[in-house]
Each structure stands twice: as C-alpha cells, then as structure tokens.
Design goal:
The protein has 418 residues and is an alpha+beta fold. It folds into two domains: 2-344, Rossmann fold, CATH 3.40.50.300; 357-412, no CATH class. 32% of the residues lie in helices and 22% in strands. The chain has twelve helices and 17 strands. The protein has helices spanning 35-47, 136-141, 154-163, 167-179, 219-245, 266-269, 272-284, 300-305, 340-344, 357-370, 383-393, 400-412, and strands at residues 2-8, 15-19, 24-29, 64-71, 74-82, 102-106, 112-115, 132-134, 143-145, 148-151, 187-188, 204-207, 210-213, 253-258, 292-296, 315-323, 326-331. The protein has an eight-stranded mixed β-sheet with strand order 8-7-6-14-15-3-16-17, with helices on both faces. Helix 4 (167-179) packs antiparallel against helix 7 (272-284) and helix 10 packs parallel to helix 12 (400-412). The protein is globular, with a radius of gyration of 26 Å.
C-alpha cells in the first residue's frame, strides 16, 4: 500500500503532501486542481511506470517526489526521486522495490492499467513489460506487446471462459452480481452472433427479460463490465503466472479509480464503491484485508454512498482547493452529511444552494432583502421583483416559501399588528 506522496515543485503547488488512507481515500475538489494527477503519481509510486504522460515540473526550480510503499510484513521505506531534466525522467534507486500487491487503475479515458507482481515485478527478462496499459478499444479487443498477445480482451475472453466452463467465468458471474445494483442485476446470457458476416459469437447480458449483446450495451453498463472483467483478468492471470514461477499468489489489491460516476445513473453511483470492496472478497472467496482504494470524484452521491462503511481509522477525505493562487490539500475533515443535497452544499463540493444558478441568485437576493440589506442585484432590487423570480423558479412546495412569505408578511403588516 502507498503511505504518502510529498511533491515539491510538481503540479500546481510548490509543496504538497498527501497521506493515503489504509483502505479508502476519497479525493474531491474543483476541476483542474489535480485529482487525476494525484492518481497518476500514486500509480507511478506503486509501480514505477507511467499510465500516461510523465509528470513534469511547472517551474525550473528543483523538483522532487518523496513517497513510501508498505509491503506485506515490510515497513514502509521512504524513497526520493529528483527530476532529471536532460531526459525528463524521475530516477529511482536500483534496489529491489517494495511490492504493493496487484495494482489496477481505472482511468477516466476508458482505459485500464494493470500491474502484476508475478509478471511485472523485478525480473531480469528484458522483454518483461513494466505494466499492462489498455486503451479504451483494447479493453474490448485485446492487447499485443512486442508482437505477443498478452490479453484477448473482454469479448473473446468472456466467450472462451463461458463456453469452456472455466473458473474465470464463475468469478465473472459472481463479481458481476455484486457490482450490479439490487434493482438492476446484470446476468450473463448465452453467446450469440451479432453482426452479419462475422465468424464469432459475442457475449450477451440478460437485462430483465431482454438479451442485450455486450457490444451494444449502454456506456454505463460497459464501464461496469470493463471493471468486472479487469478485476477477474488481473486476479486469475496473476494466479497463473505465480504458479508458473513456483510462487504463492498475492492476495493484496490496490485500486485507483478516476471518477467512478462517469456514465452511471444515480442508482449505480450510490453502489459502485461499496460494491467494489465486496467484489474483491468475491474474487478471494472470503473476506480478507480490504484493498487500498484511491478514488477521485465529483459526485455527491458517491460521497454519500460510503457513509455507511466509512471508518476514520481506515479511510479519509482528501479535499483539494485553491488558496492564495496555489492548490491546498486538506485531510481529516470527513463529516457525515446524510444525503446528496447536503454533500452538494458542504465544504467538499462548495455550492451555496443545491439548485440552478438562477434559483440560487434569487434566494440569495431574497435572504439579503430579509436581512434588510440595501445593495441588491439589478433586476432583484425589490420585494416584488424577487417574488416574481421565485415564483418562476421554485415549485409550490419548496421549503424556502414559508420563510419568505412569513418574513415579508410580517414586515408588511401595520405596526402593532405583526
């Protein structure tokens, strides 16, 4: 597991340190502050590879990254890398690194990265890949590295596993069941031909009473399917490689997840993270040490979904904000909000009102009028104008109406009769 990252002159702040929680780190903050950047750096620290572009300093000053990875029964050892400008690299010590477990990165672009302790860790074979990086289309169609087929892709593997009655398919069915919302269970259907002239069957889903080819499923369903597939693929391919090497398979997971809410209906948003922990237990066949999960999100429903499982001893909220022109990171500020609306207006997401911008402006003007302020915005400078705007924007049962009506009627009542 990754213990911390300490960045100097890397990213949008001159000096930033992140302490990663043992189980769940939930990263929130406005666009452009570096949530995905933190995940990219976490992946690099864990695997010594880059899932995308190499991180570059924003200034010509000396730049460094400090971090520590804790292994099984091994204390976390601090590592420092200083940016080497001549070749734009981050050199690392040549000693054997600490092994963090199986690492899976679910990227925002639809791609996945997998790092396998048996296939990618510290081997002398020069052809050994540093990691497996899948572009979005390679998730479905397979991946070749140096002319060798290393993965058949979701559709071919699914059908091969299913028709061969392999344990991978049983695992896929179990994880798929866990990752589905209770009201919308996803079940595997029988493979069938989908496109005229194509010489192979494709996997299908049973959605209610309908059979839907995976190739034609919605974007949200396909993202969940890809996640399920890569958990199963990474787990079973690692077990196979470990057996070939005569080693005991690793059972620890680190999962990096960028915006899990992408393409998902709110019903799925509020189950995806709790289900992820259950999915890892399904793969293992029993409950064990939970995976270390790092998540960047913009979704108040995702935040609300982890309230029932949040444990301050194991989990943390990492909030990024802009202060004095630089990115600041606040940790340890988790507070249960109760529902998604409260999360929207919490410090984590920062809205004044969980409404449209226009409704927020009308209510802000109404509250200013009720406080007796004189400097009101143009178009909302009188009680009549504000009332007309509220009537246009708020439903009749809105909770703001009683306060507005009672307050304005009291102010309008003749003295002595209020």
């Amino acid at each position: 597991m990754l213990k911390y990252l300490h960045l100097k002159n890397v990213g949008l702040a001159p000096d930033v340190k992140v302490e990663w929680a043992e189980r769940l780190s939930l990263i929130a903050g406005d666009n452009g502050l570096g949530k995905s950047f933190l995940l990219d750096l976490a992946w690099w620290a864990l695997t010594r590879t880059w899932a995308g572009s190499v991180a570059l300093p924003m200034t010509t000053k000396k730049a460094s990254i400090d971090y520590a990875v804790k292994g099984k029964g091994v204390a976390a050892k601090p590592i420092t890398s200083e940016f080497h400008r001549p070749d734009a690299s981050w050199p690392l010590p040549q000693a054997r690194p600490v092994m963090p477990g199986i690492v899976v990165y679910i990227r925002i672009d639809g791609g996945f990265s997998v790092w396998d302790p048996a296939r990618n860790y510290w081997r002398t074979d020069p052809a050994r890949p540093a990691a497996y990086h899948f572009k979005a289309d390679e998730v479905w169609n397979g991946l070749d590295i140096n002319g060798q087929r290393v993965c058949e892709g979701l559709e071919r593997d699914w059908v091969n596993w299913q028709e061969g009655r392999k344990p991978q398919f049983q695992a896929l069915e179990s994880v798929l069941r866990v990752m589905s919302p209770v009201q919308e269970p996803l079940r595997a259907g029988q493979p069938q031909r989908v496109f005229i002239g194509e010489g192979r069957d494709r996997p299908t889903l049973l959605v209610g009473n309908q059979t839907v080819p995976v190739a034609l499923a919605s974007a949200g369903v396909r993202r969940i399917l890809a996640l399920v597939y890569f958990l199963v693929w990474a787990w079973h391919e690692h077990a196979v490689a470990a057996k070939l090497l005569g080693k005991k398979p690793e059972n620890r997971f680190v999962i990096l997840f960028d915006e899990p809410e992408t393409h998902l209906h709110p019903r799925w948003q509020r189950t995806v993270l709790p289900s992820l922990f259950k999915a890892v237990d399904e793969l293992r066949g029993k409950a064990g040490t939970p995976p270390q999960v790092m998540v960047a999100t913009h979704s108040p429903l995702v935040a609300a979904s982890v309230e029932p499982i949040f444990d301050a001893a194991l989990d943390d909220l990492i909030h990024l904000s802009l202060k004095n022109g630089a990115v600041a990171i606040d940790q340890g500020g988790w507070a249960t909000q109760g529902d998604a609306t409260n999360w929207l207006v919490s410090e984590t997401f920062g809205l004044e009102q969980a409404r449209s911008k226009e409704a927020e402006e009308a209510i802000e003007a109404a509250e200013a009028l009720m406080r007796g302020e004189k400097n009101l915005p143009a178009g909302l400078a009188t009680k009549t104008a504000i009332h007309a705007r509220l009537q246009k924007l708020l439903p009749a049962g809105d909770m703001f109406w009683p306060r507005w009506i009672v307050t304005t009627q009291r102010k309008d009542a003749p003295k002595g009769k209020a």
